């Protein structure tokens, strides 16, 4: 539902955080990137704790006010990036899906800032349940995340269409759980993707293409009754 975040803007944000805590920009950014796996898995209880750990690795002891400033910069950036990078057809497709009585869930690798900002996004109202990696203490493609979101939705994995851009081997994880994976091909590669995208039967370039897949599945299900 969200476009790939600009890596250059992401780096710019980290450099502003570095300025806030009086840290060398390049070294801070390197440590901030290095702690991403821990950040996403919930090893840090807060963004402030993460920033403190980065500063400790750089032998810097910022004040509480400096850390709070860095946290605010991070929150503002994430809010801006998410709000301004919602895919153009996301709301229309989500509305279409909900009008058909289908449930929608969010399962995402993220850290605490995203959890805080998520309810502020206009698309959040369309989701029936959310699973955030940092809160669940697991990363994709951990089966525990797929089990958690299906349990929250009250559905079986075999009843689910999993839509994602392939980051974190999510498509392979969904397929292994018995879901129907749909790969959204982004025009810009995800700079945080660690693995090549897998072969998959269903590929779409726009979320609106999902309507045809859902309609075909619905027609097949009606025919089989």
Give the topology.
Blueprint: H1 7-20, H2 25-34, H3 36-41, H4 47-57, H5 64-84, H6 90-99, E1 105-108, H7 112-117, E2 129-132, H8 133-136, H9 143-153, E3 161-164, H10 170-176, E4 180-184, E5 202-204, H11 210-224
Parallel strand pairs: 1-2, 3-4, 4-5
CATH top level label of the largest domain: Alpha Beta
- State the secondary-structure class: mainly alpha
Considering the protein shown, what is the CATH homologous superfamily of the largest domain? HAD superfamily/HAD-like
Major pleated sheet: 3 strands, parallel
Poorly predicted parts: none
Which CATH architecture of the largest domain would you pick?
3-Layer(aba) Sandwich
Tell me the overall shape.
Answer: elongated
User: Strand content of the residues, in percent?
Assistant: 5-15%
Order of helices and strands: HHHHHHEHEHHEHEEH
* Tally of separate helices: 11
Radius of gyration, in Å, reads 19 Å
The overall strand count is 5
* Total tally of structural domains: 2
What is the arithmetic mean of pLDDT? 91
**In angstroms, what separates the terminal alpha carbons?**
32 Å
Q: Helical residue percent?
A: 40-55%
Adjacency order of strands in the biggest sheet = 3-4-5
- The fold-level CATH name of the largest domain is Rossmann fold
Could you list some keywords that capture this structure?
225 residues, Rossmann fold, 2 domains, three-stranded parallel β-sheet, two-stranded parallel ribbon, 11 helices, elongated
Summarize the structure.
This protein has helices at 7-20, 25-34, 36-41, 47-57, 64-84, 90-99, 112-117, 133-136, 143-153, 170-176, 210-224; strands at residues 105-108, 129-132, 161-164, 180-184, 202-204. By secondary structure, it is mainly alpha-helical.
């Amino acid at each position: 539902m969200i476009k790939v975040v600009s890596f250059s803007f992401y780096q710019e944000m980290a450099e502003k955080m570095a300025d806030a805590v009086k840290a060398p920009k390049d070294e801070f950014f390197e440590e901030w990137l290095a702690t991403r796996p821990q950040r996403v898995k919930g090893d840090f209880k807060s963004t402030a704790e993460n920033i403190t750990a980065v500063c400790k690795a750089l032998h810097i002891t910022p004040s509480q006010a400096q850390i709070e400033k860095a946290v605010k910069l991070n929150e503002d950036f994430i809010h801006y990036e998410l709000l301004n990078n919602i895919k153009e057809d996301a709301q229309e497709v989500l509305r279409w899906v909900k009008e058909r009585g289908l449930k929608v869930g969010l399962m995402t690798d993220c850290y605490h800032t995203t959890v805080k900002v998520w309810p502020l996004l206009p698309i959040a109202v369309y989701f029936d349940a959310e699973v955030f990696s940092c809160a669940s203490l697991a990363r994709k493609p951990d089966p525990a995340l797929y089990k958690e979101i299906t349990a929250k939705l009250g559905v079986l994995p075999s009843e689910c269409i999993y839509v994602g851009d392939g980051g974190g081997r999510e498509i392979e994880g969904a397929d292994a759980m018995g879901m129907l994976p749909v790969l959204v091909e982004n025009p810009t590669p995800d700079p945080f993707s660690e693995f090549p995208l897998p072969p998959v039967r269903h590929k779409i370039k726009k979320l609106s293409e999902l309507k045809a897949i859902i309609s075909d599945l619905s027609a097949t299900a009606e025919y089989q009754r």
